[in-house]
Automatic annotation (TrEMBL):
Gene3D superfamilies: P-loop containing nucleotide triphosphate hydrolases (3.40.50.300). This is Shikimate kinase. The gene is aroK. Binds 1 Mg(2+) ion per subunit. GO terms for molecular function: ATP binding; magnesium ion binding; shikimate kinase activity. The keyword Lipoprotein does not apply. Substrate binds at residues 33, 57, 79, 137. It catalyses: shikimate + ATP = 3-phosphoshikimate + ADP + H(+). Belongs to the shikimate kinase family. ATP binds at residues 11-16, 117. Catalyzes the specific phosphorylation of the 3-hydroxyl group of shikimic acid using ATP as a cosubstrate.
Length: 176
């Protein structure tokens, strides 16, 4: 069975939704950021601080290439995965791609709970940075099989919507 791959901006819910969806489907779950942290024995924040973003993007490419060879998994990606066409081609080869979206307001609210995202460190500039990055990336997030606006939807609602799409698309082979 194809992998189910979640893409989208920071704070749209990829990591949280991915884990719950994998539970619901009884499939293995992988988060590319978690894998990068594990393989480097450093947090994403530390990787950015010590080695810089370029190194992080190289690590991300390697991990995405690896995860893309899996089957039947749910894969949550980092928000910048779309910046590389190579990443997207790898993920698409054996995956159905679902984009999660949210408004700037929702993104700011959800990403303010934990400061684990080095790109959003500058507190006073966060709204500006989110707007700028969204502008640069918005089009890239269209590169998907399905898209869900998660604004004012509960996690359960988002997961139900994904399940509906997967069933309709025949991605679940008649399973619940
Ligand atoms: N639909 C939702 N409703 C309410 N909170 C959400 C929703 N989706 C995600 N969150 C919360 O937003 C925060 C960021 O979610 P996360 O899964 O880390 O996003 P991402 O991996 O896309 O950056 C978490 O605290 C998570 O619980
Ligand atoms: O958008 C980005 O460039 C990033 C998103 C983060 O993941 P989440 O989207 O899960 O927050 C993480 O990969 C890193 O901080 C860079
Ligand atoms: Mg995440």
């Amino acid at each position: 069975m194809k992998n189910i791959v979640l893409i989208g901006f920071m704070g749209t819910g990829k990591t949280t939704v991915g884990r719950l969806l994998a539970n619901r489907l009884g499939r293995p779950f992988f988060d590319s950021d978690k894998k990068i942290e594990y393989e480097n024995n450093l947090s994403i924040r530390e990787i950015f601080e010590v080695y810089g973003e370029l190194y992080f993007r190289q690590q991300e490419k390697m991990i995405i290439a690896k995860l893309s060879r899996y089957n039947n998994a749910v894969i949550a990606t980092g928000g910048g995965v779309v910046l590389s066409l190579e990443n997207m081609n790898n993920l698409k080869r054996n995956g159905v791609i679902i984009t999660l979206t949210a408004s700037v307001e929702t993104i700011l609210e959800r990403t303010s709970r934990r400061n684990t995202r080095p790109l959003l460190d500058d507190f006073d500039q966060r709204e500006k940075i989110v707007n700028k990055l969204l502008k640069e990336r918005a089009e890239l997030y269209y590169n998907a099989d399905y898209s869900i606006n998660t604004n004012s939807k509960s996690l359960q609602q988002v997961i139900n919507e994904i399940m509906f799409f997967l069933r309709q698309g025949g991605y679940l082979r008649g399973k619940r």
